[in-house]
Amino acid sequence: MSTLRMTSDLRRQLILGAAKRCFARNGFAGTTTKRVAAAAAISEALLFKHFPSKAALYAEILADECEADPDLAHLLGQEPSTATLVELTVGMVRHFLHISDSPDQQEAQRVRLMVTSHLDDGEFARLLYAKVGDLIGPVFAASIDRAVAAGEATRIGGEPLNLFWFAHHTVLMAAVSRMPAVPCLSYGNAADVERQLCEFILRGIGLNEAAIASRLARELSPGSGQPVIAESA
Q: In CATH, what class is 2-51?
């Protein structure tokens, strides 16, 4: 049984490796499951036993990239706390706000795919949301609990993970608004926008003004890290 499991796991990794090369070369739209199967030297039917669709395959690749990101690994390894909430928020805001500035347009293409999925059948978005929620949700929810217990936040609603998604949707839409060559909204000075958006989100998830003032200044100081949060999820 263990040998079969190892063989299956190895085959899955070989498929993912082949798919990464295909997606990098041809993009999401230009890659087919038939092409991935050929690159992995397997049948398309066997590929579907591991991944039911192209969207599932791509979502798995993005989730793996998130888990492998050292900044995100550092964040997820932190003790749940108010400081962790602030660090997560700043990292997510910085990541999304700088997508339009990056010379590498791969992340911008992923954002477009995410938006298109919402307007289409939603499969890719649902898959990626599920993976990101599993990855970040426990740390986020536990940090909300710690912040409330420390008197640095007020509990808002009964579903803490919803607060993460509300924050995520805010920064995702901010990124989308800035992506055209002529932005739909410029939002003004970049540094001011970063701080304003962080403050907006932190207030929205329940942090009080004293906690925001003391902890956000530290995270936004020059030289602070810029973790990448969950790709374009």
A: mainly alpha
